[in-house]
Amino acid sequence: AVTIDTGHEVLLTGATGFVGKVVLEALLRRREALGISRIHLLIRPSHRGTPAERFTAEVAPSPCFSRLPAGWTDHVDVVEGDVTSPGCGLAPDVHERLASRVTHVLHVAASIEFDLPVHEAEIVNVGGSLHLLEFARHAPRMAQMVAVSTAYVTPHPGDGVLPVHEALVPLSRPAEEIRDAIRSGTVDEDDLLRETGHPNTYTLTKCLAEHLVVERRGDVPLAIVRPSIISASWREPFPGWIDSTAAFGAFVALVGAGHLRAVVA
Q1: Phi/psi zone of residue 181: left (φ > 0), alpha (ψ -120 to 50 degrees), beta?
Q2: pTM of the full structure
Q3: From the first residue on, what is the mean pLDDT of each consecutive set of 10 residues in the chain (265 residues)?
């Protein structure tokens, strides 16, 4: 008899980053409780090596996974791809295999550079999200897509802080129109930021991505999560773990090294 695996299969992006590692560790630690049979990591090749080499060098040795049972990598499948490319850069046979099996998409990958030119930030943060959504639309077993955004899609209001609601942030014009202007190069970056009120291209493009995945989601069950400033782990995988100098990590490093003794906030 042929045994058909009916467990959940997760496609995770961004596993080489700090948040991606935390997500991967949590999925593996709770694998049996969540009914997960396989986790597919979408990793792009780079000057540091092939996706498999990057996983071996940049992900697997991390202290983040030190408390998992031996053999945890047996539940992980590394696939070569790139969220900025149509079809997520997957080879046709790999795309077909994953689309037939994946039940959950967790899109964590993003460019978090605040000063990236807006057209480059759009390619990663907007284009990448839409490519993952398109993949989810063609996956018949799809039960949930989660897109990681940021709390700062809401522009800082200036004097006084207004409540941030769990709703799309109003834009000055349709998100598709703004995206078209960015892609065609017919908009000045500074003018666009003044128009939307966003302080940088990161928060702007994440805001656009939210609008566009919601508008195009069709029948895909979609959830958007908005983390705030990323800091060290509270409890899991273990208290105080951090491997990123982005966001609050730089403050942690400076305080720990004795270079920063006071933070006025």
Answers
A1: alpha
A2: 0.91
A3: 68 95 97 96 94 97 96 97 96 97 97 92 98 97 97 78 83 97 95 95 97 97 93 89 80 87 82
**Is 42:20 a contact under the CB 8 Å cutoff?**
no
Q: Which residues of 108-147 are buried (b: 16+ CB within 10 A; e: fewer)?
A: bbbbbeeebebeebbbbbbbbbbbbbebbeebeebeebbb
d(CA 260, CA 105): 40
Residue 229's pLDDT is: 84
Query: Which residues 6+ apart lie within 8 Å of 144 measured at CB?
Result: 103, 104, 105, 221, 222, 223
To 5 degrees, how large is the angle CA 32–CA 142–CA 146?
Answer: 80
> Which residue is it, tokens 């092939």?
50
Paired tokens of 225:
């999560």
Please spell the DSSP secondary structure of 119-168, one letter per residue: HHHIIIIIIHHHHHHHHHHT-TT--EEEEE--GGGSPP-SSS-----SSP
